Amino acid sequence: MGHGRLDGARDGACDDGGVFCDHLALPAHRLRGRRSRDDHKHDPGNASSAPNLGLVPSSGARRRPGRSRDAVGLSRLRHVAPRRGEGVKLGGELVKWDRAAESIDKTAVGVERRYGKYKRNLFAGARGRTLLVAAGTGQDFASLPENLRVTAVDFSRAMLEKARPRAALYKGSLNLARMDVQRLAFRDGTFDTILTSCTFCSVRDPVEGLRELNRVLKPDGRLMMFEHVRAGNPFLGILMDLMTPVSRLVGPDLNRRTGENVRKAGFEIVREFNVYLDIVKIFEAIKRGA
């Protein structure tokens, strides 16, 4: 992916032609001004301190003399246009999650209290350059180990605005960016670790989103997922199927077969752990053949 005319939409600069453009240039948040060493790796004479995020800039972006390609801001990212008929669907999803930003912290209190320790134990294995998908309002930032180089992305601008204060408390490098996991603006093989937390119950095309994660993960990288899925029990599974059209109106799908989707996207699951029955699960996966 990312080569030739197959991704023709990526060749153009971000504009207002699509449902949204990846142009939310939120500043990096760091405790006491700490920056990772790579934040200062730029060409001689370059005054920019923008971190190297592995972002793919638009072909139309101007580059200042001496400025490294990776230092191009989020406002310069290539825009990936929605497919035919996709715009209305994506717009509806944006409205739903922008509205949810007002109440999600309250509704998630019980979940965090019950399952937070499992998430912290999982995320403790994160190493190197890390991508956190569907950052939401930043509740998961406190579960991250210190001193990582984290890029946290979310589909919703309202969610990211609420995530700012929590991002400022992270003891390491944490950058916020507005992106759709189905259309990530990173180069192939950018990240050592990718983390998700109840993410793929809400992605419109989960296999496509997971394929994007496969693309931006390094060959020796690791995908770590904390997710809720469709129950294996026939009765519970059918009940989830019946409830999903309603739950989807205001929140996530309840009947995602995430393990199957991870495999379809080209991953090999190396660890699968049931946190609650077989509904709340942990997956750890690597690229197939790695």
| CATH level-1 class of the domain at 108-287 | Alpha Beta
Count of DSSP E strands? 8
Strand order of the largest sheet: 1-4-3-2-5-6-8-7
CATH architecture label name of the domain at 108-287: 3-Layer(aba) Sandwich
Structural class: alpha/beta
CATH superfamily of the domain at 108-287: Vaccinia Virus protein VP39
Range of helix content: 25-40%
Distance between the termini: 18 Å
Outline: globular
Largest sheet, strands/sense/barrel: 8 strands, mixed
Radius of gyration: 19 Å
Features:
disordered N terminus; 7 helices; eight-stranded mixed β-sheet; 19% strand; 28% helix; Rossmann fold; 8 strands; globular; alpha/beta
Task: Please give a structural write-up.
The protein is α/β, with parallel strands linked by helices and 290 residues long. The chain has a domain of 180 residues: Rossmann fold (3-Layer(aba) Sandwich). 28% of the residues lie in helices and 19% in strands. It has 7 helices and 8 strands; from the N terminus they run βαααββαββαβααββ. The protein has an 8-stranded mixed β-sheet with strand order 1-4-3-2-5-6-8-7, with helices on both faces. α5 packs across α7. The longest helix has 17 residues. The protein is globular and about 45 Å long. The N terminus is likely disordered.
